[in-house]
Design brief:
Helix 3 packs parallel to helix 5. The protein folds into two domains: about 1-245, Aldolase class I (TIM Barrel); about 290-353, no CATH class. Helix content is about 40%, strand content about 25%. The protein is of the alpha/beta class. Helix 6 links the parallel strand 5 and strand 6.
Length: about 350
């Protein structure tokens, strides 16, 4: 089983961000963390036997806006349930991930860091309303290396107005210079509720740019194992993300977090005050067998994991055979794999329609 912990506080709201996060509720931090601990204790006791958590991912928002002292209480509850060699990742932003904070998180057992860098170009960072500059990002990464983190991810956004292949190459070259083992390269999306929504001019729709990026990263030694994720070696791939793609059960703790157990999806209260007042209240969505098949195909085609052929019906299998003849997908040991992640949704919808 996987565990996701949501921290909804941010120093500033990025113009593209649609995640459940707040820049004006810092006075609720202690109450929120108390509610979080209450839900975590409940979830672990209800759904798990000891030593059953395979991976932990602390996301946001910005987890580095919460002091390590607050995480100590959280890890006291969590630690007895962790499997040996559990991958524990925390997201953080360069401006708030101080050396002291990174040291504190490492002492608690965090062994993987994901930096929200987005770019090493200061002009682009301002456009995105990021709270750091390129120098701050480099310093934070170097601090993490010095402290002993040897599994580090950097998020990079591309497809932003003003982006060019030459500009993006500088970002990827810097990541190589810093000896980063993993990167996530996301194409900008314009989501409702963000400052960039309805500003179509801010986004570049250039499929050719994506292909150029993928090829450049491949030549830099980064293997693409999901539409947005690249790793130098298998050992640095995100085990937590793989768990989602494999449709494993996961607990979601925090305001607006989502959990999935067997055929049920659980949604916590999104509003901070609502969540704090009752962190054990959920909305439950019951997934049908067909819903789960659709998700397995869509997720399987977006990554190198693929999906088992035997979940499909005869009509769907005939379409698989068509795509195999056209060499758009391939089959190995009863699993179906997509050869071009950018075509993932198109191929999945063709098979499932």
């Amino acid at each position: 089983m996987l565990l996701y912990i949501h921290i909804p506080f941010c120093d500033s709201k990025c113009h593209y961000c649609a995640f459940n996060s707040y820049t004006d509720r810092f006075h609720l931090k202690k109450d929120y963390m108390s509610a979080l601990r209450k839900q975590l204790q409940f979830e672990l006791e209800k759904n798990s036997e000891k030593k059953s958590i395979e991976t932990v991912f602390i996301g946001g928002g910005t987890p580095s806006t919460i002091k390590t002292e607050e995480y100590e209480k959280l890890f006291e509850i969590l630690t007895p349930y962790l499997q040996n060699n559990c991958e524990i990742t925390t997201e953080c932003n360069p401006n708030s991930a101080t050396k002291k904070w990174l040291e504190g998180m490492k002492k608690l057992g965090v062994n993987r860091i994901s930096f929200g860098v987005q770019s090493f170009n200061d002009e682009k960072l301002k456009k995105l309303n990021r709270a750091h500059n390129s120098k701050g990002a480099i310093n934070a990464i170097q601090n993490a290396k010095c402290i002993g983190f040897n599994s580090i991810n950097c998020d990079i956004i591309y497809g932003v107005q003003g982006d060019s292949f030459e500009l993006l190459k500088k970002d990827f070259d810097m990541i190589s210079q810093l000896n980063i083992e993993h990167l996530s390269a996301y194409s900008l999306t314009l989501e409702e509720g963000t400052k960039f929504f309805n500003k179509s001019e801010i986004k570049i729709d250039d499929e050719e740019l994506s292909y150029k990026i993928f090829e450049y990263l491949k030549n830099k030694g980064f293997k693409q194992y999901e539409i947005s994720n690249f790793s130098k070696e298998k050992t640095y791939e995100s085990k937590h993300n793989y768990g989602y793609w494999q449709h494993k059960n996961y607990l979601g703790v925090g305001a607006g977090a989502v959990g999935f157990i067997d055929n049920k999806r659980f949604y916590t209260k999104k509003g901070l005050e609502e969540y704090i007042s009752n962190p054990l209240e959920y909305e439950i969505e019951l997934l049908s067998k067909e819903d789960i098949i659709v998700e397995k195909v869509l997720l399987g085609f977006r990554c190198s994991n693929g999906f088992k052929k035997d979940i499909l019906n005869q009509k769907q299998l005939s379409k698989v055979e068509e795509l195999k003849k056209e060499k758009k997908i391939e089959e190995k040991e009863g699993r179906i794999f997509n050869k071009n992640f950018l075509l993932a949704d198109e191929l999945a919808l063709y098979i499932l329609e």
